[in-house]
Task: structure prediction
Amino acid sequence: MRAERGRPLILRVGKHLRGVFDRLIAASSLVSNAPVLDVRDFAWTAALRDEWPAIRDEAMAVALRGQAAPSLATISPDHRAIAEVDKWRSFFLWGYGYRIDDNLARCPRTAAAVARIPGLNSAFFSILAPGTHIPAHRGVTKGLITCHLGLIVPQDGDVRMRVANRIVRWSEGETLVFDDTYDHEVWNDTSATRVVLLIQFARPLRNPGRWIADRFLAVVRRSAFVQEARANIGAWNAAVKQMDV
Result:
């Protein structure tokens, strides 16, 4: 097993033991372990749906303007295998528990909405260019669940996601909750841009799964996987500010 430079031992070994960790976490889950979950099990998603026009307007004002939202491949080197440059862009508000204060200040309604989410881990505007295909991949840990709030969903073709053996599609103003540790991929087979608010939050767990998930995420937060991305977001925002002067 070749070590990856800058990656802590638990992450390198974790790639090979992820199935073991995920099974232990799944056994402690207080919600379904299905690929796609029922939004009614997460009452806070109703507040997102209520706020969606304001969140969409903020996304359009900040994330779709100029170079404010960088390519995910630029921000996160670990995503380069699946995120073609300028095809999948992101405007981060929170990343693995870290606030992106400059970006939050520009989106006050969205900032207030996501601050109320229990166990918030990450939140960002996820922007998919026309004709984009994100190949099959899996998330880091079953200790996190993903929620998408549809903001801009093109209607001139098919924009969809496969999660395990399920095909799901977004609707503007609606939430979609899924487990990204299942193999999943995304297509934007339209001529327009798809935008969602992507949220990762802690899976409701009892022990020992809660303890395992918390320890693993604590290591991930300190890892190069996260710290490089934080530094890259800061550098990108600084460069954009200089261009705006």
About this structure: The longest strand covers residues 120-128.
